[in-house]
Write a structure and sequence with these properties.
One of its GO terms (biological process) is tRNA 3'-terminal CCA addition. By secondary structure, the protein is mostly helical. It has helices at residues 8-16, 20-23, 34-40, 61-81, 95-106, 125-133, 138-161, 179-190, 195-216, 220-232, 259-278, 293-299, 307-322, 328-338; strands spanning 41-43, 57-59, 114-116, 122-124.
Amino acid sequence: MMGRSHPVHAWLLITSLRLAPILFELPRKIQWRPEQLDRYVRPSAPDVVPPGDVAGNYTFEEAVYSDGMQTVQNLHSVIDKLQGDGVFSMEKWEPDEKRLMRYAAFLAPIAGLQYEGKKGKASSVVIYLLGDRLKLPKRDAERVDLILSVALEYQRLVGDWGEGGVPPPPKTHAGAPSAAAQQQEGADEADGTTHEGSSASQRYRRVDLGLILRKAGHLWNASLMVAMAGAIGRVTPSSPSHTQPTTPPLSGPPPAVPLHSSKHVISSYRAVKEAVEWFGLDGVWDKGPPLDGNAVKSVLPKLPKGPKFKEVMDEQVVWMLGHPEGTADECRAFIKERFADFA
């Protein structure tokens, strides 16, 4: 039932019957983030051996999966709300993308968490739950983990850009900016922002967004949707503590996300989606650096193989994202100056 293309009903049953802590038993020695410790970890009674991972505490797993179910409900409410919206269209998605997106939404509360695995190695909690516990194919578990990792990057990006902080499109890129972008550009001019400064800001944002897309690859849309659903129901340290997890309904549509709580979030993530088009970044994950290894070696003959060589290749990618119309010769001049010690 969990392996089907639409496992949401299974999660409704599992969470309402409080079976999630059994089926998705969390590993010990999780490296919790501070805000998660406050919400999901509780003191143990003196005479109870804690099943959790923090000395003298236990993990309130029902709270974790209750929050996960809420993210799933948020996701489907948003999908229903955005039907017919060209920006968030899912018509061209592969079936696997939608299935993996739902798994990711359910596990959103533990996105990016690691635990101390075999021989003390830091390992992904998400991959453990989906691979070791649920026995999904390793590739599926890794892709869900990737969706969640990138979702955290999107949430950080939206926070960095802030309200109205979405950059206008590059002057060289075809496509009309939104009204919000035009207003921001006008505000920059009113504040005396120079064209050079504005271009530098655009380059920074293009590089930041481009690196996220290169990491996500074809799953970038799924990650964006999960990030948006998680942001609508974001848990904060000031949120009331769980004493009794909310039991989701067994049937029927998920509760609609209130407009007052979702409108601004959807607008912020729409701006990210539009920025991908403005900056011409769709498919950027398939684009290699301007210079291959042999070309780099010809420019930097003293460059050793290993981490330093990788650093040069990574710097090329950053340069390429910041200079979408740059040429190989310009990139060659850049790395020769940037890594002059190896020339």
